[in-house]
Amino acid sequence: MSYLALYRRYRPDTFDKLVGQEHIVKVLVNQIETDRLGHAYLFTGTRGTGKTSAAKIFAKAINCEHPVNGSPCGKCAACQALSDPSNIDVVEIDAASNNGVNEIRDLREKVQYPPVSCRYKVYIVDEVHMLTGAAFNALLKTLEEPPKHAVFILATTEVHKIPATILSRCMRFDFRLIPVDKIAELISKIYDEEGKKYEKEAVFAIAAAGDGSIRDALSIADIAISYGTGKLTYGDVAEILGSANSELLYDFTENLIDGETGKMLDKINELASLGKSMGVLTKDVVLLLRDILVIKTCAGAEGILGLPAAKYALLKKIADKTSEERLLRAMEIFSDAENMLRYTAHPRVLFETAAIKAAKPQTDYNIDALLARVSALENQIAKLNYSAEQISVRQTENVDKTISVGAIRKNEDFKGEAPAVEKLSISSAEPSELKGRLLSGLRKTGSEMLWNVIQNVGLNINGNVLVLNPSDSGDFSILDMEINRDKIKGALTDYGSFELQVIEPRVEKKLDAVDEATERIKKIFGDDIVIVKD
Predict the structure, then answer these.
(1) Domain 180-241: which topology?
(2) Based on the number of CB atoms within 10 Å of its own CB, is 18 exposed (0-12), middle (13-18) or buried (19 or more)?
(3) d(Cα 214, Cα 87) in Å, to the nearest integer?
(4) Superfamily of domain 6-175
(5) Closest C-alpha to 62, from 49, 76, 46
(6) Which residues are CB-contacts of 407 (< 8 A; sequence separation ≥ 6)?
(7) Is residue 241 within 8 Å of 209, Cβ to Cβ?
(8) Least trusted range by pLDDT, from 174-188, 228-242, 381-395, 408-422
(9) Contact 292, 341 (CB under 8 A)
């Protein structure tokens, strides 16, 4: 097979070509230049970040006769010998398929033999976390005290699965995810060498799709080269990645932010008709909301996202309409939906439900949704353009202090004093409303005992007279006290002056003096507190 994949053809062979791992390169180069080599190294990190490449470069560099800035020269006898795949001085072991104790015992026996044509015999154990517990135990002693000519390099993507006894015997290097701009720069160089024309935004989209992995990004870049003979565009990359139609997706998101559920459901129908799964749509929506949030919060968002100018302008328009809280809640809703899609038998219904929930914050009682609703109300109030200096309230006796929003006008219509508020009166009030205001007023003034009595008292209105109908003489005695009459009138000051009449019960159980006093005390303090002893 003559064609070689891009990630293999452009695999780095010197440390200066290793992208995004400068902190590791610096340590390894200094060890080589000062001849302070360790006997066991552990390279850990996400796939496609350069672990195996770094291990191969390091294996060559420590055996190179004339290293250049810590990297192998590629010209000396040792470098030439190690370039031969049949060389046995650098041994690569795939622990995923050689994970048993017998393979490690075989390694322990062979590690004693010195290198054939180099100074060091290097063992690169890839996916070392796949070894069994017995295999790790077999490796332990050899790893702790290997022969002077042996160097072990262990590589893994799941360092948490490696026993602490192994970790403590290795120099650990954590490989970072590669920044998008560095991946994009590498892909641009490769395309230039390959003679492939491209849009800057297309390359940036490929780099972003790699999620920090150069190998993943180069695999996509390899497909993109074969997509067409012309110039590679952002739209081509979107098609390759299987993303939903960007224009429809932007319209859907704008409808969601505007709360236009009808139009939003129409867009969902159009997106579904393109053959895109609900899982892909959900992921695309989350990523798009993330881009809008970046635009909303970051000053240099245009450089961070690397979107075409027209698409950036569309997202900026959407970002200006909403708040950070609204975006965060929407992202959370769709992220939850993405997890639930794995188990549902009706993915479209689940997606539509999530979309409607995100579009209607008033149906959502999550704290982020409530903050979004408060923010929307603040924006609406700000648009009314009220001026505190132009709003005055005449405070006169017996005037309701509650002013409705409709009573306040905008600045341009506001002339003179505020409109007078209608005066309340007992004669025009409803008994149930009046009793509610009375109880509320007593609660505010701290008259708990009187509040408790009024609960079971009938209340009527006769013209400008408030009539109270207690059910027994005990309640009558309490309500008829002058101090309590004043409290009742004080709780209803909004209704102006009125008369208070307390009607004594006509039919009542005859009680002697002691029983009557007991009943009064119970009314005041409650049955659960008063205990009568013989």
Answers:
(1) Helicase, Ruva Protein; domain 3 (1.10.8)
(2) buried
(3) 28
(4) P-loop containing nucleotide triphosphate hydrolases (3.40.50.300)
(5) 76
(6) 418, 419, 421
(7) yes
(8) 408-422
(9) no
> Could you tell me whether strands 150-156 and 40-45 are parallel, antiparallel, or unpaired per DSSP bridges?
parallel
Longest dimension (CA), the chain: 123
CA 117 to chain centre: 55
Q: Give residue 389's pLDDT band: very low, low, confident or very high (50, 70, 90).
A: very low
Q: How far apart are CA 482 and CA 465, in angstroms?
A: 17
CATH code of domain 431-525 = 3.30.300
Distance CA 39, CA 148 (A): 8
User: Environment class of residue 128 by beta-carbon count within 10 Å: exposed (0-12), middle (13-18) or buried (19+)?
Assistant: buried
125 three-state secondary structure: strand
Q: What are phi and psi of 54, to 5 degrees?
A: -65, -40
pTM for this predicted structure? 0.59
* Chain centre to alpha carbon of residue 414: 45
Distance separating alpha carbons of residues 299 and 320, to the nearest angstrom? 14
pLDDT above 70: residue 25: yes
Burial 416-449 (b: 16+ CB within 10 A, else e): eeeeebeebebeebeeeebbeebbebbeeeebeb
d(CA 266, CA 497) in angstroms, rounded, equals 61
Q: Is the per-residue pLDDT at 461 higher than 90?
A: no
467 beta partners: 460, 501
Spatial distance between the Cα atoms of 69 and 358, rounded to a whole number of angstroms: 55
As given in the structure block, the two tokens for residue 495 are 């209704």
* 415, burial (CB in 10 Å: exposed 0-12, middle 13-18, buried 19+): exposed
* DSSP letter string, 284-310: HHHHHHHHHHHHHH-TTHHHHH---HH
In CATH, the number for domain 246-378 is: 1.20.272.10
3-state per-residue secondary structure call for 441-496: HHHHHCCHHHHHHHCCCEEEEECCEEEEECCCHHHHHHHCCHHHHHHHHHHCHHHC
* Domain regions of the chain by residue span: 6-175, 180-241, 246-378, 431-525
DSSP 8-class letter at 411: G
* Neighbouring residues of 371: CB distance < 8 A, sequence distance ≥ 6: 323, 325
* DSSP H helical ranges for 133-277: 133-144, 164-167, 180-194, 200-209, 214-227, 234-241, 246-258, 261-273
Return the axis-axis angle of helices 278-297 and 347-359, rounded to nearest 10°.
Answer: 20
